[in-house]
């Protein structure tokens, strides 16, 4: 695109009413965003978390974005059939009252924050997995279950483990990058703390990833009702990591439906089909145990195409957000 044409389109793109930065999540940043006539269309978050309040209708047509996992049936915002909604979770048996499409704000932040990060892939690594379990809490039973299984099987020292207020691997005291210094705060569960304007949880630690082979992704939710991927999954995809996930039933199946590939050629992923959270977590741990017995260089070689594919998908919003872009492009004004 010629500079003059780029500048012309940018003049229109800057007119969009997009106080929540919705378009930055949906579209690649390299080109001007589409133009949505501000006389008729406003873009907004459904809920402004920094202000702890719901949004209000501001135009005849709204493009809303839910960055978390709001239940469509519990939403109090005035959503009309002519609106469009970008949602960060997928409810398996519930629909919004307007046309909608999935787009992960959390994936967007991971690729933005770690854009210039280069991660080595050494052939020798002292630990098998990073198991960053975060906090326990009433809504995260799978984290406690997995931690107890690690402890019962004498595997804490063979992995890099962080379970706030319960256990922290000594290795986590040795990093020197900003994110590693943050991890040194022994009892700090607050991943909303910021480093250079971004949440600490969005940063990838080279120190951790270059010294382990796989990740155990302890997601934020374990409900079977919806799929909600966060930066935890996003970091593993971006960094070309095999992973075992602790979340709801059919999490991996839904991830594959978005275009990603998982690791069933090497990892027993049958745990993803189990309805009960406790039994699903135990099965995931059994897969974890089987995987650690394999030669990890051979595992990575076998999964190389899958890992490369996943990074390509998460970094290309034209592919990852295809349905969201197609939906919004129908409302845009050609300029």
Largest sheet report: 5 strands, mixed
The whole-angstrom Rg is 21 Å
Strand content: 15-25%
Q: Structural class, judged by helices and strands?
A: alpha/beta
Coarse shape? globular
CATH topology of the largest domain: Rossmann fold
- Count the strands? 15
Detail the poorly predicted runs: none
Strand order of the largest sheet: 10-9-8-13-15
Briefly, what is this?
The protein contains 12 helices and 15 strands.
Written account of the structure:
By secondary structure, the protein is of the alpha/beta class. The chain has two domains: 101 residues, no CATH class; 197 residues, Rossmann fold, CATH 3.40.50. It is 33% helix and 16% strand.
Keywords:
single chain; Rossmann fold; 2 domains; 5-stranded mixed β-sheet; 33% helix
List strands and helices in order, with pairings.
Blueprint: H1 3-13, H2 22-26, E1 41-45, E2 47-48, E3 53-54, E4 61-66, E5 84-87, E6 90-91, E7 99-102, H3 105-113, E8 129-134, H4 141-152, E9 160-163, E10 167-168, H5 178-183, E11 194-195, E12 198-199, H6 206-209, E13 214-218, E14 226-227, H7 231-238, E15 243-246, H8 251-257, H9 277-292, H10 296-315, H11 317-320, H12 322-329
Parallel strand pairs: 1-4, 4-5, 5-7, 8-9, 8-13, 13-15
Antiparallel strand pairs: 2-3, 6-14, 9-10, 11-12
Helix pairs in contact: 3-7, 4-9
